[in-house]
Write a structure and sequence with these properties.
Helix 3 runs parallel beside helix 4 and helix 6 runs parallel beside helix 7. By secondary structure, the protein is an alpha/beta fold. It folds into 2 domains: about 80 residues, 2-Layer Sandwich (Alpha-Beta Plaits), CATH 3.30.70.930; about 150 residues, Vaccinia Virus protein VP39 (Rossmann fold, 3-Layer(aba) Sandwich), CATH 3.40.50. The longest helix has 13 residues. It has a 7-stranded mixed β-sheet, with helices on both faces. A 4-stranded antiparallel β-sheet has the order 2-3-1-4, with helices on one face. Helix 6 links the parallel strand 11 and strand 12.
Length: about 280
């Protein structure tokens, strides 16, 4: 049976960076998908994960810096592919990587990633995914063992394999993301990616050369010791899903384990950090 979703339509003023902050906070309380528009964002959450107080911890709603109005309604899950086809535009990263849906024309760049995002996060449009692709572009990944934690659509795991990573684990706690990642891995003819549904408890006795974690700040802080414990000596840790103002909090936690911040990328106040063990 198709899932039932609750659709929220948010009008945000000023739109930027208000919409970015709102999406980050909504993602932390169970909202699965976001479609930005001229006035703000439309957000979706499964009815089974929804309750009338789902927005009570969304701090931006009570901020004096932003005006946010919203309405919500229950909708049936009908044709999400048609919705994405209307709203998902192809993008390019540094003129080297194209990220597109199957119905978009191939621009014939060096790397071509085909994603059918459905309700999963990670199309490359969001700043954090875009920056992680930029980081991966700079890395030598041939025969490196890679972890994509919080894989969403599987886009970063797929790109890692395109750059030679072998093997790669892709993990997400959300069933929709798990299923979607499997589909996208197959769509991109990847053969060295294993997709798992779950959380950091799956990482017992695992070791990686590169760990990618594009997750919200609080989960990163909670699981940081686990990630770093899985990282081989001289391994690389790529972190994103938070703002520039959060760097000190992240850096204090990572530095406890002797890792050094080597490089970071900033995009519209979002950041992606590269640490080396």
């Amino acid at each position: 049976m198709d899932s039932i979703y609750i659709e929220y339509n948010f009008i945000v003023s000023p739109k930027e960076p208000g919409t970015e902050i709102l999406i980050a906070e909504l993602g932390s309380v169970g909202f699965e998908s976001f479609i930005e528009n001229d006035h703000g964002v439309t957000a979706y959450i499964q009815k089974e994960n929804w309750n009338s107080e789902v927005l009570k911890d969304i701090f931006i709603l009570t901020s004096d810096e932003f005006s946010i109005e919203y309405q919500f309604k229950e909708i049936e899950q009908t044709n999400w592919n048609a919705e994405w086809e209307k709203n998902f535009q192809p993008i390019q990263v540094d003129d080297l990587v194209s990220i597109r849906a199957p119905f978009h024309e191939n621009p014939n760049l060096k790397y071509d990633i085909v994603i059918e995002p459905k309700m999963s996060f990670g199309t490359g449009h969001h700043e954090t995914t875009h920056m992680m692709v930029q980081h991966l572009l700079q890395l030598e990944l041939k025969d490196k063992k890679v972890l994509d934690m919080g894989c969403g659509t599987g886009i970063l795991a797929i790109f890692a394999e395109m750059k030679g990573a072998n093997p790669t684990d892709a993990i997400d706690i959300d069933n929709w993301c798990y299923e979607n990642s499997i589909e996208n891995v197959d769509r991109n003819n990847c053969h060295n990616i294993s997709v798992y549904e779950g959380d950091s408890s799956l990482l017992v006795n695992k070791k990686y050369d590169v760990i990618i974690a594009n997750i919200n700040r609080n989960i990163l802080l909670m699981d940081m010791s686990i990630y770093i414990g899985c990282l081989n000596e001289n391994g690389i840790l790529l972190l994103s899903g938070f703002y520039q103002d959060d760097i000190p909090l992240i850096d204090v936690e990572v530095s406890k384990y002797g890792l050094k911040l080597e490089h970071f990328i900033k995009r519209n106040n979002w950041v992606a950090l590269k640490y080396v063990k």
